[in-house]
Amino acid sequence: MATPIPAPAQVNDATALDAADPLAEFVSRFVASSDVVSYLDGNSLGRPLRATEERFASFIRAQWGGRLIRSWDEEWMELPLVVGDRIGASTLGAAAGQTVVADSTTVMLYKLIRAAVDARPGRSEIVIDDDNFPTDRFVIEGIAAERGLTVRWIRPDKSAGVTVEQVRDAVSDSTAVLVLSHVAYRSGFLADVKEITAVAHESGALVLWDLSHSVGVIPTALDEWRVDLAVGCTYKYLNGGPGAPAFGYVAHRLQSELTQPIWGWMGAGDVFAMSDGYRPADGMRRFISGTPPVVGMLAMQDMLDLIDEAGIDAIRAKSLALTDYALHLVDRWLAPLGVAVATPLEHTSRGSHVTITHPAFKAVTAELWKINVIPDFRNPDGIRIGLSPLSTSFEELNRGVTAIRNALVSREK
C-alpha cells in the first residue's frame, strides 16, 4: 500500500510533500520546458509524455511511412473503437463496446444530444444549467432552434454547481434530455452523477454528461450509475495534445435506439460497399461519421498506459492532496490580500482544479504569463489553478501560488 501524503495542516513544506508522494516519479515522465516556472493549466492542455516522442517517430517510420495505406486495414480502421474501449476501461467504468473516439467535443455533443432528442419524440424541453461551458450551451440552443424545442435553464450557485434538488425541480415528462458537466469548468464542483441520473430517469428523460474536466482524474462508473450518454475531450487530463479528438459513450441498451444525425461512410454497416443508401453499422461504429483522426489518437494512448500503471484511485488521492495544498496556500498567503475561493472545500464536491477570485486577476494573469508562470484565467475575475496529478509536483504548485502572491503584493505598493 502506498504511503499516504501528509495533510497540509501537518506538513507545510512542498519538498516534504513531494518526498512523501507515492506518485512523485511520474512527474519526470512528462516533457517539461526549462523556461516554465510553474504550469498550472493542465486542466486545459496536458503536458506531452516523453514516451510520445518515440510513438510519433515509430508511427511515421513503421505505419505511415512503412505500411502506408495498408495500415488502414491492419489497425487504423478499428482504432476509434480500440482506443475508445481503453478509455472506457481505464477511466470511465465502461464495459467494451460503448465508447468511441471521433470528432471534436462540440461535434460529439451535437451528435449525441440530437440523437437523444430524436429518441424522445413528443418531449419539448432540453434541460441544462446556465453556468455550463459555452460549447454545451451553444450546441443545445442550436438543437432547440433546429427542432423547435425549449431550453429549460437550471441556475446554480456559480461557486458551487448543480444539485440533485435543482434537477428534481427542473426535469419533467416534457424533458427529452438533461445535459450537465461532471465537474463544473468554472468552480470545479463535482456533481453527483449517480443520483442526478436516477432523478432524470424517473421522469423518462435521457441524460448526457460532459466529462471533459473529470476524465482521467475522477474515478467514474458510467455503467454502474446507469448513465445514458457521455462526451469528453482528451487533451486535458488524457494528454492527447492540442486538438485531440473527443470520445463519446453510449450505453449498450440505447445504441440500436439512437440515430446520430451526421451520416458518413465510416458509420455505415459496410464501409466499402459504396451503396446508394445509408444503413448504420451495429454498435458504436454507427456514431462515427468521417475518417478517424488517427494521428490525434496517438498521444493519449501513452497517458492511458500511465493511468493504468498509477491507478485511477491513486490519481484521485493525489488530486485531492494537491487541491488541499492549493487551498492551504491560498488561505495562508492570498486570502489576506483579498482573494476568495470559488471552489467547494469538501472532497466529495471538488474536482481537480481550484478557482480563486480577485478583481485584479485578469491583469495579474497577463503578468504571470510574462514570467512563465501559467495559470488559467476565466472571466470575470477568476484564476483556475489546474492540477494534473501525474505531471504536477507540490513544489511546482508552491512556486505558482508564490508568484500569484508576489504579483498581488507588488500591485499594492
UniProtKB/TrEMBL annotation:
Record-linked InterPro entries: Aminotrans_V_dom (IPR000192), Kynureninase (IPR010111), PyrdxlP-dep_Trfase (IPR015424), PyrdxlP-dep_Trfase_major (IPR015421), PyrdxlP-dep_Trfase_small (IPR015422)
Protein family per UniProt: Belongs to the kynureninase family.
Named cofactor requirement(s): pyridoxal 5'-phosphate
Enzyme Commission number: 3.7.1.3
Keywords for this protein: Hydrolase, Pyridine nucleotide biosynthesis, Pyridoxal phosphate
One GO CC annotation: cytoplasm
Assembly, per entry: Homodimer.
Domain Aminotransferase class V: 93-332
Pathway annotation: Amino-acid degradation; L-kynurenine degradation; L-alanine and anthranilate from L-kynurenine: step 1/1; Cofactor biosynthesis; NAD(+) biosynthesis; quinolinate from L-kynurenine: step 2/3
Protein name per UniProt: Kynureninase
Catalysed reaction equations from the record: 3-hydroxy-L-kynurenine + H2O = 3-hydroxyanthranilate + L-alanine + H(+); L-kynurenine + H2O = anthranilate + L-alanine + H(+)
Function: Catalyzes the cleavage of L-kynurenine (L-Kyn) and L-3-hydroxykynurenine (L-3OHKyn) into anthranilic acid (AA) and 3-hydroxyanthranilic acid (3-OHAA), respectively.
Enzyme class, spelled out: hydrolase
Gene Ontology biological process: anthranilate metabolic process; L-kynurenine catabolic process; L-tryptophan catabolic process to kynurenine; NAD+ biosynthetic process
PANTHER family reported for this sequence: KYNURENINASE (PTHR14084:SF0)
Hydrolase found in the keyword field: yes
Pfam families: Aminotran_5
Single annotated GO MF: kynureninase activity
